[in-house]
Amino acid sequence: MFNSNNFNEINYLNFDSEFKIDLANKIKVILAPNGTGKTSIYKNIKSRFPNHSFIDYNEVKQSVISKKNEVIIGASIGLIDSKRNEKNKLLELIDVKSNLKKFNITNSKSAKAISNNLDILRKDSEKAVASFTNEKLDCIFSMSDDYQKFFNENARKLLDLEKIKAKIDDIKNNYKKHFLAEIDNYLENDEYVCPVCGQTNREPIKSIIAKKLLEIKAIDDEIINKYQNSHPHLKLEKILENVNKIKSIITENNLTIEDLESYYLCGGDQQKSKLIKESKKTLSNINNDIKNLEIQKDKFYENLKKYKDNLSSTFQLQFSVNSENIIFDDLNKLIKIKLPRKIEEYSTGEINLMTFIICLLEYISSDKECLVIDDPLSSYDIPNQYKIMYEIALAKKHSKGILIFTHNIDTINIANTQYNKIFEFEIMEKRKKKLYLNKINYSCNTNILSHTELIKNLSKTYTHLDYLKLLMQKEEWEENSKNHLIFHYDEPFSKEVDGINYSNDYLVDLIDNFNESTFQNISYLENTANKIIYTAALRIWIEKQFFMESNNDIGLHRKQFGDKIKYIFNSNRWNGSDKVTREYLMSKKVMLNQHIHQQSQIMPFYYSLNLTFDDIANEIIDIKNHFLSTDKIRSGLIEENVSV
Length: 644
What we know:
Strand content: 5-15%
Number of helices: 28
Shape: elongated
Largest sheet: 7 strands, mixed
Number of strands: 15
Structural class: alpha/beta
Strand order of the largest sheet: 2-13-12-4-11-10-5
């Protein structure tokens, strides 16, 4: 279904050539530790397969609204509301009405004095932004304050002046140039018909032109008088010069009433003009998102209507909701569920579970052939985790494909203990930045991911099998048992257990000899075993550094790992590299912050499944670099800052 070639556009992930996701006839569950790119792969699949169904925790949260004793469910309704709020906030920031108010445009009358369209835009901010253009506004913004002030007060008159002149030009352009040159002599006072094109006018042509010229003169006189009144100290010649300059700006830039509308819509503010222009694309994208989400919501609703009886019976069984309290709102394409208890009496997990089940039912009732789920057990308590996996297993009965990504081990264990025959499990691994997909090729009726199943199924030829088995027995030992000293380093120690000789230096040597070829992707079983052994060995290696640098301080003996760190750093007993501090050690991923080491056999198993080879390898190299002295680094014992 998916293979490494499908992910070549995720340029920061490198896939093994055998990396392939094949659903076959079972529900595929892929365990992906943090850092393996699970989210990127999920998003990539989602973008490439829009005809599949997808459920993730965030989508589930975005599909429910709770109030009083009612749950309202619809695909992405929370996201739709969020998008609308985003749009409203942007429009509030632009604040078209306040911008217009700067020019005393506060009602229909004042808006229509500019244009009828401006009155429409005044009432619809979204439409105002969509129609806005600032392509010619720079010529106004670049005017001097005096010119701009005069333009603001007389813009419509100035534009009318140019508009009338243009109309006269249109009239004259209907005639040949040689007629226009002597139009007064050529045309009779009562000439209604154009001698060139034959067009008949409502009044004599000379009369039309004369009226327009009178209009021009009246507006011209009004504009000049206004400028003269606001600049009484200027001579007439200067007044005419300034007015003509303003006119020329309008003419040369071909300013129109649409440009004037845009100027008023931004409040004559250049920064606000830029904001509106930038917001046009944002608003367009938001509206497209809302439109697509609404389409999804409608499809979601119509699919569920076909499954109405099944939904009612499921909710009656799972949540004691009577069928008459499940209301299908055809107008708003929403499902409203009246609950038997107040909403605050339900946990978040229960509310999310209701939505999750509805999403599953919608998938079943749709014509989509595959459902991809990201971390289905997020935010749910144990009982609801079992319910979720139960519902997913039921969905498989409809012969549809289901793919689950998760970082939660319980997803696999719960699935396996319920319906192990319809699931198959794989684990993602990362080594040297390359991603591998390893199958779990064994089955059991208990927790398939456990240290007992690991030991049971691991190859008998595994190199460190004896140490791994012994480590897994630690919880059964008495606290004062000397066996614990095999997995600590108070001093060199060896002991025979069940006929096998064990030594803590064996484990120290694993870290001393660690190099970039130590970890190789083999299989889930051997990979996990190696992670556990090397995680345990690293702690022992660190304890040996304490032993050596403190000259075998007996105060370190028989202490737990966390107590040893506290003892050696809190009392300034550390004589090694100043790069090593208590805070540094406690910050590492590889269990250095786990205090009770006797009971660590289970913990290393869970740690190993949540860390990749790259995580552990890089931690080992980093810790060794911090502990080893500068002289040792220079002598070539270890390469500084190597990432493996």
